[in-house]
Task: inverse folding
């Protein structure tokens, strides 16, 4: 039975990036956590990016900062320690889940399993920012390079959802991050998502998510990038609702100022589509 709260609580299943541990974010992790508290959140998942397997998968901003894969691993370890300290410090005020956001590049699956074993996170967010080792979301230029390398938009979408399926099947992440991020620089994404070969892959992935009882991140960051709708698009959301998949808001915050941004809009959209607002927790 769908449980809809009269006044749904504020939560974020995918948030808490900070300038302390992420080059494309600002502000300290402590300041961001305190912003969640000031804005009345009940619980939040901190989901910093996993470090890259090798230098080959570093982002331009990390290279510009003079970092390498080894130093990013050390920074990630510091993130886990800091997040756990904040979890203890604010216990009773804000429920904090210490997680991280995965990747799928060459060597990433065994590497991520080692991260899980070493750091014992509360949960992981299964996300893709690369297709066949090609970054697609850092810039529009990168996206167009990925399109060209894969032989067109349709092939890029198909490969993205195939690799997403591989990630879900292999790592069983509690949360699937921004399910349709592959549309980030495609103004024709709505028609493309409906194409039979792409729609079939979406349905296959959602079926696996439903079978395993995983959660979809309703990622509101898209609304800050002048997009018409969050990740996940309405057409996919409708399928998720029909399959009784839990969908939970994520602000994907990267600063104090972005904490909780567009959350009311996201809650309203989910309520309007008939989703439960008795938010599933990631553990």
Result:
């Amino acid at each position: 039975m769908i449980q809809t709260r009269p006044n749904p609580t504020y939560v974020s299943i995918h948030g808490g990036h900070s300038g302390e541990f992420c080059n494309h974010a600002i502000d300290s992790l402590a300041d961001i956590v305190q912003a969640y508290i000031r804005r009345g959140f009940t619980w939040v998942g901190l989901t910093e990016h996993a470090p890259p397997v090798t230098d080959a998968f570093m982002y331009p901003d990390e290279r510009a900062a003079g970092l390498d894969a080894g130093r990013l691993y050390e920074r990630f370890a510091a993130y886990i320690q800091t997040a756990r300290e904040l979890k203890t410090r604010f216990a009773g005020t804000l429920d904090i889940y210490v997680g991280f956001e995965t990747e799928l590049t060459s060597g990433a699956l065994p590497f991520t399993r080692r991260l899980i074993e070493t750091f014992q996170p509360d949960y992981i967010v299964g996300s893709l920012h690369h297709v066949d080792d090609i970054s697609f979301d850092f810039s529009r230029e990168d996206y167009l390079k990925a399109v060209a390398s894969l032989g067109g938009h349709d092939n890029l979408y198909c490969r993205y959802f195939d690799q997403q399926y591989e990630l879900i099947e292999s790592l069983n992440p509690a949360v699937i991050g921004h399910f349709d991020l592959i549309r980030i620089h495609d103004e024709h994404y709505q028609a493309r998502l409906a194409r039979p070969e792409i729609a079939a892959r979406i349905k296959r992935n959602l079926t696996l998510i439903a079978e395993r009882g995983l959660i979809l991140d309703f990622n509101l960051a898209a609304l800050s990038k002048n997009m018409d709708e969050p990740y996940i698009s309405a057409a996919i959301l409708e399928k998720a609702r029909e399959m009784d998949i839990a969908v939970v808001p994520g602000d994907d915050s990267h600063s104090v100022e972005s904490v909780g941004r567009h959350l009311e809009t996201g809650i309203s959209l989910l309520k309007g589509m008939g989703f439960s607002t008795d938010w599933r927790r990631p553990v």
